[in-house]
Design goal:
single chain, 371 residues, alpha/beta, VC0802-like, Rossmann fold, 7-stranded mixed β-sheet, 14 strands
């Protein structure tokens, strides 16, 4: 069965996600605002779930159509081939969002979409009632500018949940964003990476997994694996392929520093769960003692910041120290994410490249220094 899939991603990372899908051999890849579309079968779905570092989840795009009335919404949803994915006993809850449309009531849209799916399935199965006691098909919708996108989620928990972060510090960076920072920093199998404010270690762990080609979804399961329509061998085959790709011969090494001993303990536990603890050394150290290492070095960090005035002042004091310690030297690369628009001025020099994105709900920029 040939399907169209939708992979929501953090704004600003669409290009990275699209390039990743093309590298994985997925077909008809196209990037749009906040998402990447591709086509394929259930094997392609399994590959994207297991191997994508930047997508937030993988969804089946059931259909898209224009709707300004509840009748149009009902008929559009009913016409989609729900029987291809939802069995007689399967559960199919509905959730979604409405933006800039004539139909702006999310609860009402949920009810109409649920009713339309039931009506379509009732004609197919000759039933008027569905128990919904089986595996879940989470139906999702987005109604934006009067255009409806109707999807079924295949991932379950978001793809940023790799399975290694049992604990985190107070302001963790999302794994997908950390992986993107490693990619933008050009991390490769022979790199030496440092995070001088590493917190729970997410950036370093994602960098190590990238360098060693450890698939981010290799140690977790996905909602669609319980679906009767998905052949079990699809995921088994893709897991085997992902395992074969791991580079145990990579010479990658990393070091992480922080002033919080509890955070460092969590980082060590997370690295152990991720299978990269032998590649990363953690140590308690303040940023003012940072010194560039000899030879090539890639520094990637997410300095702490907040919204209270005192926090901002403290963060800006930190940026000044970073500017003094992150020396402009041959073989040194620095990648820093922050929501502070004054970062470059306080840091002391313009970035060689910048990329706008989001860290959670905060608008941020990734500043890259490599010249």
């Amino acid at each position: 069965m040939r399907l169209t899939f939708c992979a929501p991603c953090i704004f600003g990372l669409e290009g990275l996600c699209a390039n990743e899908f093309k590298f994985l051999g997925l077909e008809n890849v196209r990037a749009e605002n906040g998402r990447v579309l591709f086509e394929g079968d259930f094997s392609a779905m399994a590959k994207a779930n297991i191997q994508s570092r930047y997508a937030e989840r993988i969804q089946i795009l059931m259909g898209e159509f224009h709707a300004e009335t509840y009748d149009e919404l009902f008929e559009g949803v009913k016409a989609l081939g729900w029987e291809n994915f939802i069995g007689i006993s399967d559960a199919f809850p509905v959730k979604g969002r409405c933006l800039n449309s004539k139909l702006m009531s999310v609860p009402d849209c949920q009810k109409i979409i649920k009713k339309a799916i039931v009506s379509g399935l009732a004609q197919r199965y000759m039933l008027s009632w569905f128990e919904e006691t089986g595996p879940v098909r989470q139906v999702q919708f987005l109604l934006m500018n009067d255009r409806v996108s109707v999807l079924i989620d295949t991932s379950g928990a978001g793809l940023h949940k790799r399975g290694y972060r049992a604990q985190s510090n107070e302001a963790p960076i999302k794994e997908t964003l950390a992986a993107a920072m490693a990619e933008l920093s050009g991390v490769r199998a022979n790199h030496f990476v440092t995070d001088p404010m590493c917190g729970s270690g997410t950036i370093l762990i994602e960098a190590a997994m990238k360098a060693m080609r450890i698939a981010p979804g290799l140690k977790r399961y996905f909602a669609c694996e319980r679906w009767s329509c998905v052949p079990q061998e699809a995921f088994a085959r893709e897991r085997e392929e992902a395992t074969d790709l791991i580079r145990k011969d990579a010479s990658f090494e990393a070091e992480g520093f922080d002033i919080d001993e509890a955070a460092l303990q969590v980082a060590e536990q997370n690295a152990e769960l991720a299978g990269v603890s032998d590649r990363i050394r953690f140590e308690k150290r303040v940023i003012s003692l940072f010194k560039p290492a000899e030879g090539y070095q890639t520094v990637i960090t997410n300095p702490p910041y907040g919204e209270r005035l005192l926090d901002i002042r403290a963060a800006e004091s930190l940026y000044k120290v970073m500017g003094e310690r992150f020396a402009k030297l041959p073989g040194k690369r620095y990648t820093i994410i922050t929501p502070d628009d004054d970062f470059e001025r306080i840091f002391g020099r313009k970035a060689d490249k910048r990329r706008k994105t989001y860290n959670g709900t905060l608008k941020c920029q990734i500043y890259m220094y490599y010249k």
